[in-house]
Amino acid sequence: MPARNRRMDELDLALVNALQHDPRASWARLARPLGVDAATLSRRWARLSASGEAWVTSSAGPSQLDYGAFALVEVGCLPGANQRIAAEIATDPCAGSVEHTTGNRDLLLTVSAMSVAAVSEYVLDRLGAIDGVTFTRTHLSHRLHREASRWRLDSLSQDQRRDLERGGGSGSGNEPGPLRPDEAAVVVALSPDGRRSHAALAAELGMSEARVRRAVTGMLASGRAVLRCEAAHWLAGWRVTGMLWLNVPPPRLQSVADRIATMREARMVCSVVGRANLMVNVWVHGMNELAAYQARLVSLFPEIQIVEQSVTLKWVKRVGRLLDDQGRSIGCIPLDPRKTARAALNPPPG
């Protein structure tokens, strides 16, 4: 089978699933639960990462929403301009994800910034200045009920998951406080490869290896930063991704959102300001599953209204990774919420 059309096999998917549980686990630690020797796992991961079929990346944790801003931004484009505009926006470090979608927009972005004012500056000064952009609509999030690093493939048995959860994982604590500048620098440096050694990070950042080790251990254990193992969704069998825009009565918003966040199909769940006050990013295997999921939601929560639904036609960028049409990684623009101003996005030459 040509490499371009190769489907990920059972060991590929099991390895990705295992690294979702513990992204920096040693191959020796993963050997027993996966039933494969460490050398084979190392070779398999080298192939997957070299082909762009799987990767480990980093980002600030959900707790950092209290110290910055996260928004979903709809973008309209002139006919024939959306690919050019998407490619241009994808180079922005604060634009974590860029999707071509169906529905009442051409593009859907996720934007991280240091403040609401910085989101405004990015939308007005950066997006508004791009030739061919016809409109923007911004949806500010005030709570992430589930962020995508907690989403898992379903390729491991219960016994394998239990084995991985003993003495491993990147932590899910809730230590208060924003990332320190040195920690933020480590998060950015981990974006291209979340499995980089402490020595390699120290050499790049000009820090001691001990300082880097403390930063990585502390921010991951506290949940102030997260690592995630991603895979080319199309090759992994997740053929349909999209967004549901829900209206939930405000007194029920938190309880409904928290319940939806436990559902298998929900990859990201966030409360936003607006008539559609809950947005759910959904990953399923086919369009029939998407329809079934919507029917189940309405049955479980009769009080909600599905304001709109959209399907992703193409992921241009996801959490800092530039993707091809099957979801393979073809480049990395590390997510950096500090870089929203036009001066930071377009520095002067020299």
Automatic annotation (TrEMBL):
Q: Where is this region: Disordered?
A: 156-181
Instruction: Report keywords, A-Z.
Output: DNA-binding, Transcription, Transcription regulation
InterPro entries annotated for this entry?
A: AsnC-type_HTH_dom, Dimeric_a/b-barrel, Tscrpt_reg_AsnC-like, Tscrpt_reg_AsnC/Lrp_C, WH-like_DNA-bd_sf, WH_DNA-bd_sf
User: Which residue range or ranges hold the HTH asnC-type domain?
Assistant: 8-48
- Is Isomerase tagged as a keyword? no
Q: Which GO terms describe its biological process?
A: response to amino acid
Which residues belong to any copy of the Transcription regulator AsnC/Lrp ligand binding domain?
A: 74-141
Domain of life the protein comes from:
Bacteria
Alphabetically, the GO molecular function entries are: sequence-specific DNA binding
Residue ranges, compositional bias (Basic and acidic residues): 156-166
| GO CC terms of this entry | cytosol
Protein's name in the database: Putative AsnC family transcriptional regulator
